[in-house]
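step=encode ok
step=design start
structure_in=
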């Protein structure tokens, strides 16, 4: 596993979202089946094993489906972590999908809208890359607040 496990409550929330999504397509899925599916997604044989490995308190890390908010190039955003990978030095490679697209150009001549971005953030939720004035491209607020 290349990213830390989220809390038990975050895993249960992931199973709930999975169940809602699958049920919306007309395929019935019980809560127990959703929990087992989440366990398999995390590479564990069953929910009981995953639940035993997860802790009650959120661990420091990002995980797919986690809600986040903060700033991207100075613009406020809220969105979801689409993918996450733990990197050396406690950094995380993330793909963030914004709820609303952000226009990243400060010009009346044209626009450049972003709905999804890739970034690498450190342990405080600040991107490694910065603008020419030294501001991080991405700043994630309350990075470890859980799902």
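sequence_out=
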């Amino acid at each position: 596993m290349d990213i830390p496990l989220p809390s038990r409550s975050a895993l249960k929330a992931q199973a709930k979202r999975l169940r809602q999504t699958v049920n919306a397509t007309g395929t019935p899925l019980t809560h127990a089946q959703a929990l087992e599916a989440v366990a398999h997604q995390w590479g564990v044989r069953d929910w009981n094993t995953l639940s035993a490995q997860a802790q009650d308190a959120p661990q420091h890390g990002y995980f797919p489906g986690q809600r986040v908010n903060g700033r991207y190039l100075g613009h406020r955003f809220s969105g979801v972590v689409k993918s996450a990978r733990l990197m050396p030095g406690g950094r995380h490679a993330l793909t963030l999908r914004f709820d609303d697209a952000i226009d990243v150009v400060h010009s009346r001549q044209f626009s450049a809208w972003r709905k999804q971005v890739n970034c690498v953030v450190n342990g405080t939720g600040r991107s490694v890359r910065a603008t020419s004035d030294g501001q991080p491209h991405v700043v994630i607020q309350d990075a470890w607040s859980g799902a």
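step=design ok
step=annotate ok -> The chain has a mean pLDDT of 86.
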